[in-house]
Each structure stands twice: as C-alpha cells, then as structure tokens.
Specification:
- By secondary structure, the chain is of the alpha/beta class.
- It folds into two domains: 122 residues, 3-Layer(aba) Sandwich (Rossmann fold), CATH 3.40.50; 128 residues, Four Helix Bundle (Hemerythrin (Met), subunit A) (Up-down Bundle), CATH 1.20.120.
- It has eleven helices and eight strands.
- The strands form two sheets. The protein has a five-stranded parallel β-sheet.
- Helix 5 packs antiparallel against helix 6 and helix 5 runs antiparallel to helix 7.
- It starts with a strand and ends in an 8-residue tail after the last helix.
Length: 265
C-alpha cells in the first residue's frame, strides 16, 4: 500500500477520505509540520495531500503554493494532492463530495510536482503573499525589518563593549537606552504573533518554531531595555539574533528569492 502524507490544516480529516484512500491502495499518514521527523517520510511517499482550506488565527488559509514550492525544490517527483469541498477542476484535486468518482486510475494520472500545471484558486488567504510581506524591507507588515533594527543596535553595542572596551554604563546611556529596545521588541513580538501562527501547516513551520524558541532566551533582557551587561558581554544576545537571522534567511532564500522553473499563481 502506497503512502500519502496528510496535512489536515487544523481540521480533522473526514473518515470517508481515509476509507476511500485505503480502498484504492493508499494509506494516509498525518504529519504535523511544526514537529520534527516528517521530512524523513517524504522519500518513500507517493505524495503530500492538503486538506483545504487550512484554518488558523480565525481565518481560512491557502497553503498550496508554499507546499508546491517546497516539493518542486526538494522532492519534484512527489505529487501535491489537494482535497476540499470546493468544485475545483484540477488534475490533482479530490472533491470530498464526490470521492466515489475517483478510481485507482485517477491516482496514476495525477501529475508529479515538477510538471504540475499552475495551481487553481482555493478559498483562503494566500500564504505565499503573506510570506512576501513578512520579508518586506519596509512598511507596517515587515517583521524582518524590525528584527534587523534591533540586531543593529546590539551589534554596535557588542563591538563597543568587546573590542573597544568601552564601559557598559557609557554604552547603555549613549546607545542602548536611546534605542528603546523594549519598545522595539514589543513591536517585533506584535508583528511576529500576527504572522507566526498562520504558517503552522506549511513546510516552513519547523524553522519558525525554532525561531520562536530562540526568542524565549532573550525575552527578559529585551523587555528590560538591555540594562544587564552580562548577556551582551558573553555574546549570548548577538548569537541568538544571528541564529534567528540565519533561520529567516534560509526561509527567504527558499520561498521568496529563489526562482523556480514554474510560475505559480
């Protein structure tokens, strides 16, 4: 029996879907993108199935473009299958209200990701567009821009402290305190909270989860306005910010900057 990895999008998969898939020779295995290990199942899988639209932050979400991007880049011979209650005329789409119409031959006619035609429209917020705003270099939607401003202050303060041996009392009075790090951090957190939950059911959820864990290590220092010298002196704050930036750069390179051979929506 072939394996299909199911991303249920925050909603239970209908029992009829599981029963139908088993009847035609496919076993659904639910994966949770925020948890590790699911990518190890991809080499042996027939494809990934999305239950659309996904649900998160009180809104319907369309994650299909991000999954298409991920599979085309990493596993081009897998199928991206989509199932919903919508009437969508698309080669890789299963209508949940008409499962009896799809026999075993239908599965063999589905297209692998590297040759899949342009994705259709599905109900919900297009998360690929949300991700572009996440990385925008300006404007109220940019999460990364706020983090960059925080990192610049920390980088300058670290250099003064570690290389120039400037007393921290002077660095704090002249640079850190005027920068109002607590306010900048709250701004970052507010924007992060608006975006982070939206991507829970996407292939980049794991990296975002890692970033969320990193932030916990310096939350106290930031909200205290950077008054403590030691976390800056031992390099912890700058290291965490650098790790966060590295994770974000990897996401941006793979999902925003990188150009694929297909243009999706």
């Amino acid at each position: 029996m072939k394996i299909v990895l199911l991303v249920d999008g925050g909603r239970p998969a209908p029992q009829a879907l599981t029963a139908y898939c088993e009847a035609v020779g496919f076993r659904l295995i639910k994966i949770t993108p925020t948890e590790g290990g699911w990518q190890k199942l991809l080499p042996e899988a027939f494809g990934v199935m999305l239950l659309l639209p996904a649900w998160g932050s009180g809104a319907y979400l369309d994650s299909s473009c991000l999954w298409q991007h991920f599979l085309a880049d990493q596993y081009p011979h897998l199928r991206l299958l989509m199932t919903s209650y919508e009437q969508v005329d698309y080669v890789n789409h299963l209508d949940l209200l008409r499962l009896a119409d799809y026999d075993a031959a239908w599965w063999q006619q589905t297209q692998e990701t590297h040759i899949t035609e342009e994705l259709p429209y599905f109900t919900g917020i297009d998360l690929s567009e949300k991700l572009k705003r996440f990385f925008a270099g300006h404007g109220d939607d940019s999460v990364v821009a706020v983090l960059s401003r925080i990192r610049l202050v920390v980088q300058m303060a670290s250099r003064e402290l570690q290389k120039m041996q400037t007393p921290y009392s002077e660095i704090y009075a002249d640079l850190v305190k005027p920068a109002q790090l607590a306010n900048k951090w709250r701004e970052w957190r507010n924007r992060w909270i608006n975006y982070y939950p939206l991507f829970e059911h996407t292939p980049l959820a794991g990296k975002l989860e890692q970033i969320a864990l990193l932030t916990e290590g310096m939350e106290h220092w930031m909200l205290a306005g950077g008054k403590e010298q030691e976390p800056l002196a031992n390099g912890m704050i700058l290291q965490v910010l650098n790790d966060m930036r590295e994770q974000l750069q990897q996401i941006e390179k793979q999902y925003v900057v990188q150009k694929l051979s297909h243009t999706y929506r």
